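[09:14] KT: can someone run the structure on this one? pasting the chain below
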Amino acid sequence: MSSVLLIDYSSLLYRAFHSLPESLAMRGVYGFLNMLARLLTDHRPGGLAIAVDDDWRPAFRVNALPSYKTHRVAAEDEEDPIAPQEALGREVLTALGLSVVGAAGFEAEDVIATLAARTHGPVAIVSGDRDLFALVRDPDVRVLYPQTGVSKLTIVDEAEIMRRYGIPGRAYGDFAILRGDPSDGLPGVKGIGEKTAAKLVAEYGSLDGIATATDVPLAVARKLEAGRDYLAAARRVVLPVADIPLPSVSLALPSAPAAPETLARLASEHGLDTPITRVQQALGFDRP
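[09:31] RB: done, structure tokens below
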């Protein structure tokens, strides 16, 4: 059975924007569309959805942990060069007839988690965001993690998580909570770095297992007690939410553009003829 592809739009758009030359005006959209064409051609998915951030810093996460993504807030007054490209890309994808899915008050990772939970059969998540490793479940859910564009993807399944981190394949979320992630404003438990976090999760299986264990070293137990408030908050922040209020979403691949005239106009106005043509060919629009 072909996998359903769930694509993290912001993650791939950001990578495209920063990898292509500045002389290419809409390089983020240009690169994303080329990546999409490659994914469609290489993986021949049985269904597809493109998840977007309708809120990159949701209130429920900030309320739980005010430090969440605070470094990005400091740059809010500066003009975001990616924002116009993000909006244009959504227009193009919608005109192509693809499912572009967001939810007010939630991030793309929550959209992906919810769609993955609803999907029967194999799911492949395409994202450079390691938070989504928390969703990996053999044999149904894996992450395709970009190394070079999308021409080289690491398949992240439970065995890969064990190989990388030395922890049970379904324990990445608990490991990430313990370790923290300064790039997202997640401090982790003070004094417990990546190695100690991995060792604890490997030995006790989960945060709950660690909390109920009676043989945790005293020095570590004291650090965990000092970080108790953080751990309670981080559970609500780090893990993607798999039951957000999404309407029914069609994952079917389109057989023709939803808005061909709009698509032609956007291609002409923004120099996107080549990548849009590649996506249409990958979708089979040019076939009888």
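[09:33] KT: thanks! The CA atoms of residues 167 and 198 lie 6 Å apart.
[09:34] RB: yep, looked fine to me
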